Amino acid sequence: MGDTFDLIAAERRRTADFLGSLDEAQGATPSLCGRWTVREVAAHLVMPFRLSRPQLLRRMVRHGGSFHRVSEEFAREVGREPLGSLADDLRANAADRFTPPTLGPEAPLTDVVVHTLDMRVPLGAGTGDVAAEALDTVLAFLRTPKAARGFVPKARTAGLSFRSTDTSWSDGEGPEVRGPAASLALAVTGRLAGFEDLDGDGVGELRRRVGDPAA
Asked: What are 166-189's pLDDT values in tens digits?
């Protein structure tokens, strides 16, 4: 497997190109990520480059130690900027090697891959051409205990097996969830849109665990 930081840089540049192709009306489209618009998701992706460690710590103190609330505030603030500015920032910092403490580079890779899908899918742009190696690295990370820190609730994937039908990745034992790697990443991280292309006798249980009311 190649260097994960190289994968991060490549996916950030790919995402920057995608953002640069959008108009401002598209930036106001609701994303798959909670209440954020496409532009607010893009703003979240540049947060590691905009906030120094002291600035981040001050915001964490102001919000009672909640990184989630800091992210929400930052996305609202910076999400007012033009998409072109956010794309330029992401491209200029594509090779940045910051990683959250104890999580490693798989965390920022997962952040950019999943959030890019959050933006692309509602705009009808499909899942793009994310590198297969990047998707496999993300899926492997989402199956680790580390992923419980902000990506996947603990035990969401326990007792299930997963198989990507368009990359080489598979993992786990139990009822199977299979489909394209990008769809697996979306479903495991709680995006209901990911289930549209999934199959297998474990899909219903995964739907129930992510809180799909139709499960």
From this structure: 999 999 999 999 999 999 999 999
